[in-house]
Amino acid sequence: MSHKVFHRFRHAACRCKKKTVLGTWILIGIYVQITIGMGYWYALHEASFELAIAQRCVDSWPTPRRQKPAH
């Protein structure tokens, strides 16, 4: 194996390795994004649900100041 061929082979292997590492990082990044996104959506959903319950509790309180809207 001549030095030039070896060097070219090593360069190709290095580039391939870099690509693989980059691909792995991209996959990790996507996974993290999805996980954060799901967690954020879930937290938002839970918060809105609790807010709705709190709102209902507030609405059911007898408050003479605020008139209950006629349904």
Write the layout of secondary structure elements.
Layout lengths: L2 H58 L11
Keywords: Membrane, Transmembrane, Transmembrane helix
Backbone shape:
rod-shaped
Number of helices: 1
- Average pLDDT rating: 79
Q: Supply the helix-strand structural class.
A: mainly alpha
Strand content: under 5%
Give the structure's gist in a few sentences.
The protein is mostly helical and 71 residues long. It is built from 1 helix and no strands.
Key phrases:
71 residues; mainly alpha; 82% helix
Describe the structure.
With 71 residues, this protein is mainly alpha-helical. The chain has a domain of 30 residues. 82% of the residues lie in helices and 0% in strands. The longest helix has 58 residues. The termini are far apart. The mean pLDDT is 79.
